[in-house]
Amino acid sequence: MSHARTTPLIQSLPASVPFVGPEVQERAGGFSFGARLGANENVFGPSPRAIEAMQAAALDVWKYGDSASHDLRSALAALHGTAMEHIVMGEGIDGLLGYLVRLLVAPGDAVVTSDGAYPTFNYHVTGFGGTLHKVPYGDDREDLPALIARAAEVDAKLVYFSNPDNPMGSWWVGRDIADALDKLPKGCLLILDEAYIEFAPEAALAPIAIDDPRVIRMRTFSKAYGMAGARIGYALAAAPLIKEFDKIRNHFGIGRIAQAGALAALNDTGWLAHVQHSVARARDGIAAIAAENGLTALPSATNFVTIDCGRDGDFARAVLAGLTARGIFARMPFVAPQDRCIRVSCGRDEDLALFAAALPGALSDARG
Amino acid sequence: MSHARTTPLIQSLPASVPFVGPEVQERAGGFSFGARLGANENVFGPSPRAIEAMQAAALDVWKYGDSASHDLRSALAALHGTAMEHIVMGEGIDGLLGYLVRLLVAPGDAVVTSDGAYPTFNYHVTGFGGTLHKVPYGDDREDLPALIARAAEVDAKLVYFSNPDNPMGSWWVGRDIADALDKLPKGCLLILDEAYIEFAPEAALAPIAIDDPRVIRMRTFSKAYGMAGARIGYALAAAPLIKEFDKIRNHFGIGRIAQAGALAALNDTGWLAHVQHSVARARDGIAAIAAENGLTALPSATNFVTIDCGRDGDFARAVLAGLTARGIFARMPFVAPQDRCIRVSCGRDEDLALFAAALPGALSDARG
Question: Where does CATH 3.90.1150.10 sit in chain A?
Answer without folding.
Answer: 8-45+270-366
